[in-house]
Amino acid sequence: MTTTKKVKKRFVAGAKCPKCRAKETIVLFKENGIETVECVECDYREQQTEEKIAKKATGAVIGVFKPD
Question: For 15, which of 4, 6, 26, 50 could close a Cys bridge (C-beta 3.0–4.6 Å)?
Fold first, then answer.
């Protein structure tokens, strides 16, 4: 018997997908300790390690990605 860990995904309000340009379709979640964003409409996906986030972050932020 295998158990699967449920990943909590959160939509990013106002975010546009850099690939398909759809609004309100980006979800943010952690996968194996790596912060990940993906679009629920297309196959866009981007990951950033905690080290990359710490270098770019200033203040209280969840993650640093380049939304349009």
Answer: 26
pLDDT of residue 26: 95
> Which CA distances in Å does 3 have to 6, 33, 36?
9, 18, 22
- C-alpha span between 37 and 8 (Å, rounded): 12
* Mean pLDDT along residues 39-61: 74
Burial of residue 14, with CB atoms counted within 10 A of its CB: 0-12 exposed, 13-18 middle, 19 or more buried: exposed
Give the separation between CA 6 and CA 51, rounded to whole angstroms: 24
